[in-house]
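residues and backbone:
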Amino acid sequence: MVLITGPCCFNSSFDRGGGLARSLYQRLGHGCKPDFELPDLAGRVVSFEHLLAERKPTLLFFVAPNCTPCKALVPEIAEWESKLADKVNIVLISRGTADENRDKFSISENARVLLQKDRELANLVNAKWTPTALFVDAAGNIASRIAAGDTAIRDLVEEISAADVSKEFVYFTGSNGNGRKPKIGETVPEFALDDRDGQKIASADLKGSPTLAAFWSTTCAHCLDMMEDMREWEQNRSAGDPKLVVFMDGEPDEV
């Protein structure tokens, strides 16, 4: 972990409960691809690799047969399946028996409904509630925020409808609080700052390997709460995991 002190040249926003950092830790520490093998309503096993072989992004809907809001969303999901057929695969991830899901979620003749034993895939991608939607790009990477609830799902679908999902870098995120769009896929701004040991770190040093940049302050209680998570990640990360660089204000001896 590299700690860079002094005035930072980036603007950032963060989850005030620390959930964003923990979510990134879980995702990047344990893999960004929601790999699975699940049976469909006919008992045929469908794997994540099967979906990737179709060379299209996938929009996952996490539902449950006893979820009333999920049932209410079915007509819209059917409409989206037709409207977005050329852009994305729509797959419903549910649980329970085939019969009860067939009654609830037969949105079309070709609808894909896959059944978890419990919530194994939902837990893997942090989809805690139903209904929830999640966009996965054509390379198999999670490429959206967790959209939980009908309003958030409609917003995500609207963004997907308007976007070119064939681009190399595509990600759907909520508001970052400052009215500016995220700069995903753009080159990191040039900078040269001292780390806590007085060594100069520049933007060029970040090239060549994945890096997670965190923006941190010694006066931020939520940042202090996250420090143990960040230390744990740094201690346990493998060779293929991203490097962690922390940009902070304050003095080196405050860290």
Residues 2-28+182-254 form a domain with the Glutaredoxin fold (CATH 3.40.30.10). Residues 188 and 206 are 9 Å apart (CA to CA). The first helix runs from residue 19 to 30.
